[in-house]
Structures are given as C-alpha cells and as structure tokens.
Amino acid sequence: xxxxxxxxxFFSALALLPGCEPKExxxxxxxxxxxxxxxxxxKFDTVFVTVGTVTKRLWVYNRNPRAVRVEEISxxxxxxxxxxxxxxxxxxxxxxxxxxxxxxxxxxxxSATVDPTAGDARPFIVEDDLRFRTNGNNQQVKVLSYGxxxxxxxxxxxxxxxxxxxxxxxxxYDYARVGPNCTLTIEPGTRIYSHSGAFLVVQGRxxxxxxxxxxxELKPDDKNIVRFQGDRLEEVYNEVxxxxxxxxxxxxxxxxxxxxxxxKNSAFGLLAYNPNNTLPRPNILVENTxxxxxxxxxxxxxxxxxxxxxAGILGISADFTVHNTLLTNCGEYAVWAVQGGTYQFDYCTxxxxxxxxxxxxxxxxxxxxxxxxxVTQPAVAPSFIMRNSIVWGSIxxxxxxxxxxxxxxxxxxxxxxLRTKDYAKGGALDQSKNGNILNPSELRRSxxxxxxxxxxxxxxxxxxxxxxxxxxxxxxxxxTIDLLNRRRSANNxxxxxxxxxxx
Length: 503
Fold this sequence. Notes:
Elements: H1 4-16, E1 36-37, E2 41-47, E3 53-62, E4 68-75, E5 81-87, E6 90-92, E7 94-100, E8 104-114, E9 125-134, E10 137-147, E11 151-157, E12 162-164, E13 170-178, E14 183-186, E15 191-194, E16 199-202, E17 205-208, E18 226-230, E19 246-250, E20 256-264, E21 268-273, E22 283-294, E23 298-301, E24 306-309, E25 311-330, E26 333-346, E27 349-352, E28 364-367, E29 371-372, E30 375-376, E31 383-387, E32 390-393, E33 399-401, E34 411-414, E35 417-418, E36 437-438, E37 448-450, E38 461-464
Parallel strand pairs: 2-10, 11-13, 12-14, 13-15, 13-16, 14-17, 15-18, 16-19, 17-20, 18-20, 19-21, 20-22, 21-25, 22-25, 25-26, 25-27, 26-28, 26-31, 27-32, 28-33, 31-34, 32-35, 35-36
Antiparallel strand pairs: 1-3, 3-8, 4-7, 4-9, 5-6, 5-8, 9-10, 23-24, 29-30, 37-38
C-alpha cells in the first residue's frame, strides 16, 4: 500500500502531460506556421451574364507537425460578382477559428454568383481576395472571374493567323502573344480590354484595320475604330493612365499595320523592343490613330537588363512610319527613339499637355545608345524625319536630341510647329529653318481648340483653333486626308493631324 499513492500521483501527472495528446492535434501559435495553397488564384473561367453559380475548389495545406487555428477566412467583397465559401459544411463569406490538424489539409469551396443587374457596365474581369489570418500572418489567394460576354485571353499564345472580330469584346489577362511567323488581324470596331499589367505581345505580325476605308468624315466615337483600354469600365477610370501594359513588338516582328485605332490608359502605347539592333528591324506603320493617357511607369525587361519609362511610341532599334496620328497626355515621352531605327512622322500632332503628371522630360527624345545591365551599348544613330507636324506641350523644350550633334544629318524636320528653345539658337541642330514655326508664344494658347491651359467645351480638343498659327502652313504630301478622313487642302494643308474645317 505504501507504493500505491506514489503510483497514483505518477499516472495522474502522466495523464496531464501534453505528450499524451497526439502532436498533430496540439495547436501552435508560432508565427512561422504558415499555410500553403493548391493555387495562388481561384479562377472561374466562365461566369454567366444572367443569374448562375459556379463552384471551384481550393485546398489549404498545413505543412506543420502541429495544428493551426485559422482565426479568419474571409472574402473582401467587390461589386459585380458575389462570392461565397463552404467550409466544413458552413456557408457564408466568412469563417472563424477553423482548425487544421498537423500535416493535414482543408477543402474550401468557393462559389461565384453573378449580379444580373450589373450588365455590360461591370468590369469584364472581377477580382477578389480570399484572406487567411493565422498566428498574426495575413495570406491571400486571388479569386478571379470572367464574364461570359467576351473572348478571354489569359497568358495565351494565340492560334496562328487568328482574327479578332467585333461581335464580342476581347479581354487580355497577363498577356496575349502573337507567335513568330503568325499574324493577328483585328477587324473594324473591335474592343480590347486589358487587365492591370497585361500586354499584347507581337512576335509575328499585327494587322489592325488593315483594309478599312471609310467613305466619309469620321466622328471621334466612330464604331469602326478599334479601341484598346483597361478593363475597369467604371466612369472614374475613363481617362486614368497606366491601367495596362501596352502593345509590344519583339525583334522578329515584321510588317505591322495599326490603322484607325485608339490606344489609351496604358503604360506604353506602341513599344518596339529590339535591344540588339537585329536586322531587319521591327517595322510598324501607324495611320489615323490616337494614343493618349500614357503613364510614366517603368517597365523592366528581366531578360535584357533594361528598364524603360513609359512612352506613346517607344522604339529600340525599330522603324516607325506614322501618319495622321495624335499623341497626348504622355507622362514621360510621347516619342522615344533610341539606338538606331528610322522614325517618320507626317501630319502628326503631339499635344503633350499632362495635367495628371508633373512632367519634366521632353515629349520627343532621340538617343543613339542605351545601357543594358549597366553597360553602354555601341552607338547607332537614329534617323528622324518629321513633316507638317506639331510638337507642343506643357514645358518649354519639347525636343531633346541626346548627343544630337553626332547624327544631326539624320534629323530632318520641316514645315512643322515646334516648342523648343534649345534648337532655336543656331548650329547643326537649329530648327528655325525649313519652313518650321518655333515658339509662337503670343498665340500658344490658341493653337488648339481646347487644352488644360485654355479649356473650352466638354473636354480637350486638339483640332486647330480659328487663329491657330498651324493653319495653312503645310506643304502637299502624298497623304491627302486627315485623322478624321477629311480631305486636306491640295495647296496649303494645315499642319498637324487635323485639317481645320470652319463651322
């Protein structure tokens, strides 16, 4: 009997020890005990435009030897699509204190139900965040839904010789790629909406409105113009720059055509990327096009050791031929031409007022070399030809030719209206010749109908004002129409993208 009491005490204490409970059931509060997931995005490939529900699975893994208590699993909740969770038989948008045993997993069912009242006004892509809070850690999984009333291109290499039609919008998520030796043709009236950071990448050939021939004067909102913009369709996003990446032409791209197109609200408009100056260079014909609201965001090319600022037209060893085109509200550059290539602008208007940016860089920048991985590349002189065009904006010098004296013979600007002081001082780069009009300061607020400096009407309008110094200052060129398909004067055409038409 004398040993009985000690034995009872021993076994009682043993029963209270943590080691008697399975280790995988003991909850740890260690902040290093994080969750892992079967996917970083729960993607609903089809969400109906009428009432409908689709359910997807997400596995949540606890790789730790001990259990964890997930304090909260929740959805942020954004308009357009209603998401719900089903966890351990309980439905709702939030779950609390969910335990996952050590080395075990949890199945989360996510369902998406469309709000039928949202209609076409809602974004075509609706994102949400599925949040997990565990031991002070906040982890997220994206929840992504597509509307059924569009064609979706998510990190997709397009079929060779694809055609995008106007019967439904096209939505780009991440990227859509035109492969080498392939062609993408975009027909009149097509609408392309791109998600944040998305690019249309052209390794082959892009043809936008290649044969479209309007029969009369166009309105700026003409239904046949191909339009690129971000996928946020709320009114507040109508003119916000930097919502998506842009259109990129890689070094193997050839014989591209961009006509009767509007590209807006991107980080870049048209970017030709050929850093090794591979010949033949990428070449792009741009006609009757508007590029606007281009941000000053930088883009880093991981495979090239190169970081680029935003631009309406940016060419690295590329050939651009541009007619009847407007570039405006470009936060860094309207045109950036570097390391060789030929750039020809006829009847173009660069009206680079930037009310949304504090811009200090010139609208047009030429340079013969760039740095890649910190190493300056061999200089290749660019060739720049501009005729019957306008380069104007909100700073005093809208032209910049880096080391321009070395390639001055490659620069030819004639019968154009320019805002520049640096190149009005004589010397090899002087532009106060060849019929150019420099710095008409006494009239600069009346070059255009409506600008941020002289706002009239309902918006900015870069057609020529009644007393514009650009009126009748051009010379006849092979291009006989203006941006809106109006006939140009046969003898004394106006300078810029628009031929003035008196009311």
